[in-house]
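Cont'd.
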Amino acid sequence: MPHFVYEVNHFGLDNDSLLLGETIFHNANGYLGVRANFEEGYPEGYKTVRGTYINGFYDFSEMKQAEKLYGLVEEKQTMLNVADTQGIRLFLGDEEFSMFGGELLDYSRTLDMAKGTTTRRVRWRSPQGKEAEITIRRMASFTRLSIFTIEYRVTLLNCSAKLRFVSSHRGDVMNYHDPDDPRVAAESFQHLLVRKVEAERGSSFITSQTAKSGLFVCSGVRHNLAGTITTGEAFAVSEVTLDAEEGMPVRLVKYTALADSIRHTDYRQVCAAELERAAAVPIEQLYAEQEAYLTGCWEKCSLDIHGDDDLNSALTYNIYQLIQSVTKDAYGNIAAKGLSGEGYEGHYFWDTEMYIQPFFVLTMPEFCKNLLSMRYKTLDMARENAAIMGCKRGALFPWRTIMGRECSGHYPSGTAQVHINGDIAYAVIAYYLATGDFEFIASMGAELIFEICRHWIDIGNYYKGKFHINGVTGPDEYTCIVNNNYFTNALAKYNLYWAVKIYDLLKQHGRLEPLERKPGISAAEVAEFARASEAMYLPYDEELGINPQDDSFLQKRAWDFAGTPKEHHPLLLHYHPLHLYRHQVCKQADTVMAHFILEDYQSRETIRRSFEYYEKITTHDSSLSRCIFSIVASRLGYKEKACEYFGDSAKLDLFNTHNNTKDGIHTANMGGNYMAIVYGFAGLRLKESGLYLAPVLPDQWTGYEFTLSYRGSAMKVAVDSRACRITLAHGAAQELYLYGEKHTLASEMVVPLQG
Amino acid sequence: MPHFVYEVNHFGLDNDSLLLGETIFHNANGYLGVRANFEEGYPEGYKTVRGTYINGFYDFSEMKQAEKLYGLVEEKQTMLNVADTQGIRLFLGDEEFSMFGGELLDYSRTLDMAKGTTTRRVRWRSPQGKEAEITIRRMASFTRLSIFTIEYRVTLLNCSAKLRFVSSHRGDVMNYHDPDDPRVAAESFQHLLVRKVEAERGSSFITSQTAKSGLFVCSGVRHNLAGTITTGEAFAVSEVTLDAEEGMPVRLVKYTALADSIRHTDYRQVCAAELERAAAVPIEQLYAEQEAYLTGCWEKCSLDIHGDDDLNSALTYNIYQLIQSVTKDAYGNIAAKGLSGEGYEGHYFWDTEMYIQPFFVLTMPEFCKNLLSMRYKTLDMARENAAIMGCKRGALFPWRTIMGRECSGHYPSGTAQVHINGDIAYAVIAYYLATGDFEFIASMGAELIFEICRHWIDIGNYYKGKFHINGVTGPDEYTCIVNNNYFTNALAKYNLYWAVKIYDLLKQHGRLEPLERKPGISAAEVAEFARASEAMYLPYDEELGINPQDDSFLQKRAWDFAGTPKEHHPLLLHYHPLHLYRHQVCKQADTVMAHFILEDYQSRETIRRSFEYYEKITTHDSSLSRCIFSIVASRLGYKEKACEYFGDSAKLDLFNTHNNTKDGIHTANMGGNYMAIVYGFAGLRLKESGLYLAPVLPDQWTGYEFTLSYRGSAMKVAVDSRACRITLAHGAAQELYLYGEKHTLASEMVVPLQG
């Protein structure tokens, strides 16, 4: 059984722990996210990242380039903190409740991942001796995406008193900034301008507009108890006063609704209607809906490790965060930090396609469709971006973005990572392989892939009969602007191959015509794709029998690992980019990653030798690296190594092992951990020829099981020390390859464990 | 005879012409430079770059990087506008003189390059009908480097009147800025803070301090006529009133002295003393000194073209600007725009070593010694820079700088141009070859070269027996961060070869010991230099028989020149760097330049084939390119092509052909034009084996002549359609190679023209 409840007694009250807790216990539903700030705040002098975010809601900021050069990005997007509706101050008589005054008799924080709520429980004695039990439960509703709730329950234990709640709703919020930390924004300004504050039939509404992008957001707040509302220029405050008797619980429920102008022209009305609709039913009904929703999710995606409780908790936590983070519509995506914080300014990266979709595609592929649709919606901006980059045709998706325009400040490790295009096309294909959703291909996927393939043709060229792609950066950011990056070329080859395939499919199904009209696709162009795919140059070194990361990688200096002091890691914080570029040193899996996603392009021996070559020179300074090494180690039969690489990676956020979880969760790492188990230990692959599994069991575990969705059928895979049992939970029978052998799964099959 | 007088009647009074005139007629002496602003200013609404600069006087400015990465430069230096002592307003009775009011009866601007002065002559009729002849002569004294003078002469032609001069001295000056032009600074702030304004015995002194670098500058002003001085917080104004009679000239002489804390701890006293010393003698004596100084210069460096008057004027102008621009001490250098404007923020580039020193080394090699000494003075900062770049030993000079620290904002086309190191070492060697100044080598040159060679060893590595240098950018800024740039590797090979040579020389002369103690040089290290030089990898393509610009240059896409509209040139203003990097397209001579400076490294055939290959793909978007192509064309016997490349390049500034001379002169281009004649048409080379000449005569000319200094002897080379005549003007007999044959020049030799 997964561990659905994560509870910590006496979670730290030092500033670092509080910041960490804000992330760990944040509530999100894929549309909105609220950091787990204390309603009443912290004492003066404490840092806090007090934020509420909407997926895809942004403003533009100036990004100055030290030297102006044509096409360099000078404007970025920033995910905005949209309002602060968390504030609730509680007065017991004339004493204000605070975790930092009086006496904390008991205190715990809980995340319940089956119920989808977080709870802070406090037993508190005031300086004057009043004792109270305070329970604060928060929820971002999965069934009503606009809604965030706080249920604030107070029971006086040794007295009766007048209770007063001062519940605030503020529009004058800013993003967090810290000039000393390169990972969060260095500066901020008032991105959000309050346009209107209204109090209306017990609710307050604040409508704000972004300074540069011209977007609107409306936040609405109401309570279950009647009170008086005061409004100011940028805030509204509700005061609720009541007499509480000893032992009789008192309960304030605060509903927040958010609506934005990206999704709704009538965002003000939507906000009001959703707020009213939520407040009209007992909070218990919202909780029940939430639990039902999550039960449905967990059925589709649970992953259970037997024999390592901490790991099991961590993995459940990771999956829950992916569910919290993923957009539920095509207006958002999955930010590098989800909706849990402002790290990387809320930007979307390749993380989505290569580290998170591999999870969703096997569990809740409908979310993949949203994610890919979001890319499709921004295709015109990707076309513009390609034009800025000098291309005459095709589209180039941005390396980092919110609304679709490139936000990379340092193009050698940003815009130059054109593999983002390959990643998106790869994800389209993976989605198609997992679901067989031809309709999506016909309506969006084909156009995405054709435009991406046009870009490959546009930037590449033939040299001595081979198709070369020059001047790009692969996933390894310690080696920038190179020629024929193996990962990029292999993906391009795959994309181009599939473009031809899809063209043929569309033709067969008589669906080519609309595409022929829209961006125009001709048989001649498709022939060009086929030729380039066939002729794609994939660097191979005869002497070492490996795929070099790029054309000149092997001739570079070796990195002096022995002479690098421990405190000089991660290298990017201690060495100039040019120094890194001059060396054979990798930040993360690059060729090794290509060997995972496109394993049929090379012999097992080449993959083995390459793995052994790159593992010596990879620092794993990126949290996206070890999981990939683990997967390839699994594939190569290096079970112990696979376990080593998997290591503590899954515990990164829950146990804050990188010490920066305060900035937000690491969503790609979370997906990567899932991958290391399902694609790694269980050896799952989605190929044109079908679904492949080849499970092994790490020695430290007694077993593991997971569910997966494949072409409309649901399967359960359970591995123990002797056998792998696969059960068809529902849906049609499916063919699959187990340890390379083809089977038909009609109801259940049990195969002895190999390897 | 060179054309020493450049005079323009009715030089335009539109804003563009005025800005151009500010550059064209600026006065400089290598220490200070004053733009040719009208003393009385322009009417409101006109732009003006009103500036006075000191070579090497700077402040720091913040340079924000769009993304923070280790070691990226975040602070640059800016050459400062130090004071405004140009202001003189003239009143004739109650009417103020202005070029833009009343009636201009006559008007001319003159630069006299033999006398070293500029003159504005005006015959003016006031609105009330007063006629006056006004002659304003300005000079930056070569014999008193602190001194700038304005002689303001007024003769009333048809009346007598009270004349009033209001002569200002302002400290509250700022640098010019224009947010719309990437070539000048986008922003500025009050870099210079006035600390003291004093009026003392007829002089005014303003002492200012830079905001960040903490430097001081003192400007002093006095006049030949007694007046009343008023001082304000940041200025002093002298008023002189006198009665002028019809036909009787009246003359105000305004002396400015500048002194700075970089050169003098007692800068205030130095300023006062120099001011007094200048004002103590009649201005005519200063003029006479100036003319004598220049006579001496012209004797050493004149270059005379017969048969093309415009060209002859332009070349004389160019040489004069080099004399004006070159520092006269080791505290400055030669900025990209000399002391004539603020373009490129007054930074020093490789232009000095590779485009300007080739002129001085043959004419006034003592200036080269200053320039190289300035590099030597900043060697410690170059060591720090190398350390920032990850090197364990050696020094890396900055790509652009004033005081010695790197100012490159975009490292791919800045800091990555480590050939700057090779250029400096090359210039040390050239200086030694031209002068035989072993003392300089022993005291500074050797250490420079050893530290530079250590850097080559530190960044390079052996691969398959060859020494590689990876991750660098050559001169061609359209191809960045490459491996084994031919130009860089060839220079490194040459540097390393000379390091060994110099070590041996020092040893022979018993001068090794101090160096052995200072940065430490061992026989083992020198053996390492020798080995790397020997094993240096110089890319060569067997199929094409050319030197590829770098390892992967030839495999890149061809640039679609036919499909590039004319208005898309220069390419850097219309294409993203990555797009340029992906193509075989060169901004400027790179391999071709290597084939000029190190012609013995390749066969004539390789050089020829390379020239023909690169000329098809070079856009000459840099003003440093055509002159090099012209030189190599000359060497290959392509006389017509050499003339074509030489073309109008020499007229760039005097005729403002690039339309940006307002920002300042192009000093490197000026040196390059000299080179195209002396190293190009006359085929001059400085080699270890001696001095080489191989003159040809362009068909358009009837002849040309120039003087040169070689190992203490002065020679005159005169070429006409039949013969080359070389005369020993003074000094010992010298050996030289003429058309490859060795001769001894004892007094004169005449050889028939070849080729």
